[in-house]
Specification:
The complex is a heterotrimer. Chain A is mostly helical. Chain A has 14 helices and 2 strands. Chain C is mainly α. Classes of the chains: A mainly alpha, B alpha/beta, C mainly alpha.
């Protein structure tokens, strides 16, 4: 029974995502909001790979998100204005940084790990802020834009056509989501779950816990880097704010809001957060009170996030 | 902790339903007019309403709303009523500002886009509006690139460039105080371009920059910077800070007694900042971009009275004027072009002179051809505590008026290369 | 140069004392209840705004005295209604809830008092420097130091010489046993929260003398407070005090050589502490 529910849920979500550019405007919204949701959902799901599935909280994921964004933006602006190359550079930079920093923090746990990720994140923020000649400082990397995708046989105008860019972002999201799902279902993924459930027991079973956490960390940062590249492309702009700890906080909130223990939870969290904020802020300048109240109510009445309620008391 | 039993689910649902109903009731009276009458002309305002620039954004909004009501009373734009759509860009989140701009352009199909106070957001929005080919006025974002190196045919600006501000006041500072300056500057586009402007003035006068401290936006404690500044004994300590940072720094400078030992001055200052300062911190030489007390200048008193009615008795600030002038510029351009088509509007804006009831200042401001920058008058003067028996908001004494086009760089030095669509 | 350095060390201690005040409140709440109070900055803002509102009625000193108690009372009510439901759950949920609370507080203060910065005037004799040479030692800053010192002293007296303090300290180590021994843990947590919020309110009243009073006044102070706690050591109040002072001094000294880095240096310090000695300077091993 649960398995059928799960497949039905997956299909429903994919259906909604793939037809979004058509029903969003009809619902009084706009395509770019959908793109925004997809990008943030990818970032939140990437974070959740580490948080919900391995049990390790990072509050510094924005650093790798931002590195992906800056890598893309600076490549397109200064080197070569090709979308895919820009994305590649961004993702490589983000992943490399994560791989190098990982060993330094992987011994830590809990709040210590989280605060250390903040510290590194802020160091990157500081560099982006100070290195004005390269990164434009607080003003960011502007005066560039994404180029239409040249696929050889045809060119996809992701620059001027919002629908085209949405599908491009969705395609990237889909590939990453599939990869994450595959990894989580593999023995590696099961090991991560074991570490989340009871780290000491996992260690006693002979599992090299620190190494697994490092790998989970790098994978998680890889995918958040991809989200970062999409973020830069979406805005045709990136500034140090993308690297700050409050951006990291947004990812955590989306994951917790939607449900840390489920695969699609962060997507739901991102969708609710962004759509609600967009809608309410258009109608009242006091939108912060409503959003704040919403968070409070969610925490009080949805103990396991929104999806936690939907799935009832079934085991994760 | 008692684990959740089934009855709790029902409680949850009831509470949520109640909250949603309550929330919907609240939202049922939006301040944004979303009546989708097809004949209205839509102007989209994408400006900060929350965060550190909330007070400035609120004032620009009030000015804009007055303008829209005035316009509609006179028949609107090209015979159609004007609808103002307001979005909160937040004070620093570029992604949100750009997203809201796209919302206004793609979903609401606005004919005019207005915004942003934050220089970086303004530039990002300008690049977006250019990509979409929408007519865009920046009321209060000062970074020079908007009408400089990243200028666009469809983007116009009401407020001064930072270079205009520094040029207008530098002569006063050099002659009055001396040529050796120490800078404390907010570390972003706005601060940097102000400092560049002053450094150019210093160079021209053979002055020296004794030192410069760049502080991040949101710095709360300036004691270290002030300690450094006073240690080199400058002729003037130049504060190029934004909003609340300026308040914090001035308060701390007064507490250190530095205003008694050194001259403290800067470029741009705003009434909103002065209203946040205690009386003993109201000093220094600054430039305002508009001031409410202009005896003898027509229409200003009426404007002040109109705004007082809408703002709970407070006078308009430069920000109010920016919002008001930006809106009216849209109307004037449309009337001149007899069209809402962006290229025609932009062409109509070239050299457009603001009539006295919109200009609200001497010297006929106009939009300069070649960089789309308005050439207003700048108000140089000193901050002062409210004079006894006078208006509590009379916190600035204008000593000199400088014409914008005399303080501005010539078009070919701004870095603007305007490209028009074919 | 040495004089400049010395100036900045002293000044850093003053600012550090202020960070410590904020951080102590946070630490109290975190240690006993495991709640990460992201709304701490919001309570600071409320403290400042209430003081501003009370000055016409009670004068500067009256407002200074009364305002933190009012804020503490608000804190006690919020604990009873909201925070209480978070105990025993993953601290992430307290983060999310207090984050939402922070949003509501910021918007609420903006709604009530407006977005415009409000002019807060401290008494003239307090606002002047004590000497011409040591001009950065203003009356107000010295007053702040004295007040922070008094608050810290008061806190330690409460914790070490009253029954409430004893129970709080015991509860921090083992709440279950304390409960079994007959202490009303609910009331204990409530009062502890109130005490922490009192310190936030006090910090707020002190802050508005130096900073502009507007809704986001607490935003930039919350991170340094967390860092002070980590550097000093989670679970240790003396550690938090030391941590606060240390980051204040580090920030001040850095601004002599590299002013733009004065904010970043405290993060680097935190990273260094976490990598080399995760429990912090005075923390106990194995906590959290």
């Amino acid at each position: 029974m649960p398995k059928l529910d799960k497949s039905a849920g997956d299909i429903l979500i994919w259906l909604l995502l793939m037809t979004a550019p058509y029903w969003l405007p009809a619902a009084g919204s706009y395509v770019e909001l959908g793109t925004h949701v997809v990008v943030y959902a990818l970032a939140a799901m990437a974070l959740n790979f580490l948080l919900g599935h391995t049990g390790v909280l990072s509050f510094g994921h924005a650093a790798y998100f931002g590195l992906g964004a800056y890598g893309t933006a600076m490549t397109i602006k200064y080197l070569y204005s090709g979308t895919l190359l820009g994305m590649l550079v961004g993702v490589v930079v983000a992943t490399l940084a994560a791989a190098i920093i990982g060993p330094m923090i992987v011994r830590l746990r809990g709040v210590y790990f989280a605060m250390c990720t903040i510290a590194f994140g802020q160091v990157f923020y500081f560099i982006a802020f100070q290195w004005r000649t390269a990164t434009g400082g607080d003003d960011g990397v502007s005066a560039w834009h994404r180029m239409p995708l040249d696929l050889g046989i045809t060119s996809v105008d992701i620059l001027n056509n919002p629908k085209a860019f949405y599908f491009f972002a969705l395609a990237m999201f889909g590939i990453c989501a599939a990869a994450m799902a595959f990894l989580l279902r593999s023995p590696f993924g099961r090991t991560l779950l074991a570490i989340r459930e009871n780290e000491r027991r996992a260690r006693f079973l002979g599992i090299p816990v620190d190494r697994h956490i490092w790998m989970s960390w790098v994978i998680s940062c890889f995918f958040v880097g991809v989200a970062g590249t999409l973020f830069a492309l979406m805005n045709n702009f990136v500034d140090p704010r993308a690297l700050r700890w409050d951006q990291s906080g947004n990812f955590v909130i989306m994951a917790v809001l939607g449900g840390m223990r489920s695969f699609w939870g962060p997507l739901i969290g991102a969708a609710i957060f962004l759509v609600l904020q967009d809608y309410i802020s258009s109608h009242t300048e006091n939108w912060m009170s409503f959003i704040g109240l919403f968070f409070v109510l969610i925490v009080l009445f949805f103990p396991r996030g929104v999806l936690g309620l939907v799935r009832g008391r079934s085991a994760s | 902790m008692i684990s959740g039993a089934a009855p709790k689910k029902l409680d949850r649902r009831i509470v949520i339903k109640g909250a949603v109903a309550g929330g919907v009731a609240q939202l049922a009276a939006p301040f944004v007019l979303t009546a989708r009458a097809a004949e209205t002309v839509k102007i989209g305002l994408d400006n900060p309403l929350t965060g550190t620039f909330a007070a400035l954004g609120k004032n620009e909004l009030i000015g804009a709303q007055l303008a829209v009501d005035q316009m509609n009373a006179k028949g609107g734009i090209l015979g159609r009523q004007v609808e103002l759509l307001v979005e909160d860009s937040t004070s620093g989140d570029t992604a949100t500002a750009v997203q809201k701009a796209l919302k206004l352009i793609d979903r609401d199909k606005v004919d005019f886009l207005i915004g942003n106070i934050n220089s970086a957001l303004a530039q990002a929005m300008a690049n977006t509006s250019n990509q979409k080919g929408v007519f865009h006025i920046v009321p209060g974002g000062h970074t020079d690139t908007v009408t400089g190196s990243q200028c666009h045919w469809n983007v116009f600006r009401v407020c001064n460039t930072t270079r205009m501000e520094t040029n207008s006041v530098s002569k006063l500072l050099l002659e009055g105080y001396g040529k050796n300056w120490y800078f404390i500057t907010t570390d972003y586009a706005f601060g940097h371009s102000l400092q560049d402007g002053f450094e150019a003035s210093l160079k021209q006068a053979n002055g020296t920059k004794l030192g410069a401290d760049f502080t991040p936006l949101g710095t709360t404690d300036f004691s270290a910077n002030l300690i450094k500044a006073q240690s080199v004994i400058p002729d003037a300590i130049i504060l190029l800070l934004a909003g609340d940072d300026m308040i914090n720094c001035l308060k701390q400078a007064v507490q250190f007694g530095l205003n008694k030992k050194f001259h403290i001055a800067g470029a741009q200052q705003e009434l909103e900042v002065n209203e946040g300062l205690p009386p003993d911190a109201l000093f220094g030489d600054w430039v305002f971009e508009w001031y409410w007390k202009q005896p003898g200048v027509p229409h200003v008193e009426q404007f002040v009275a109109d705004i007082r009615k809408r703002s709970g008795g407070k006078v308009p600030t430069a920000r109010t004027w920016f919002g008001h002038a930006a809106m009216w510029s849209c109307q004037l351009a449309a009337e001149k072009a007899k069209s809402l088509e962006p290229i025609k509007l932009a062409k109509a804006m070239q050299g457009l002179v603001l009539p006295p009831e919109v200009a609200l200042m001497p010297n006929n401001p106009y939009y300069r051809i070649g960089d789309n920058q308005l050439m207003p008058t700048l108000f140089v003067g000193q901050s002062q505590p409210a004079p006894a028996g006078g208006d509590p908001e009379d916190l600035f004494k204008v000593s000199q008026l400088v014409k914008g086009d005399e303080a501005a760089l010539p078009v070919d030095q701004t870095g603007c290369k305007m490209e028009w669509p074919s | 140069m040495t004089q400049l350095l010395l100036f900045n060390v002293f000044n850093g201690l003053i600012i550090g004392a202020f960070y410590a005040l904020m951080a102590l409140g946070l630490s109290l709440i975190l240690n006993l209840s495991g709640v990460i109070n992201f709304a701490h900055g919001g309570f600071l803002a409320i403290g400042g705004y209430l003081a501003y509102t009370l000055i016409p009625y009670l004068g500067f000193w009256g407002a200074l005295l009364v305002s933190p108690f009012l804020v503490a009372f608000i804190g006690i009510v919020i604990e009873r209604v909201l925070i209480r439901r978070l105990y025993g759950r993953d601290p992430l949920y307290s983060l999310l809830l207090t984050f939402g609370l922070a949003f509501m507080i910021e918007d609420g203060t903006r709604f009530i008092w407006g977005a415009q910065s409000l002019p807060y005037q401290i008494p003239g004799w307090l606002a002047a420097p004590l000497s011409s040479e040591y001009f950065f030692l203003t009356g107000y800053r010295v007053f702040m130091m004295i007040l922070v010192g008094a608050a810290v002293l008061g806190l330690f007296l409460i914790l070490n010489h009253t029954r409430l303090g004893l129970r709080i300290r015991a509860g921090t180590l083992d709440l279950e046993t304390v409960s079994v021994l007959g202490v009303n843990v609910r009331v204990l947590r409530n009062l502890n929260f109130g005490l922490g919020i009192y310190l936030a309110g006090l910090a707020g009243v002190l802050a508005v003398g130096m900073l502009g009073l507007e809704p986001t006044i607490g935003d930039n102070l919350i991170m340094p407070s967390f860092i002070a706690i980590i550097v000093g050591g989670l679970g240790s109040l003396p550690g938090t005090l030391v941590g606060g002072l240390l980051i204040g001094v580090a920030s001040g000294v850095t601004s002599v050589f590299f002013p733009s880095a004065s904010e970043a240096v405290i993060y680097v310090m935190m990273a260094a502490v976490l990598i080399v000695r995760p429990r912090g300077l005075l923390g106990e091993e194995g906590r959290f």
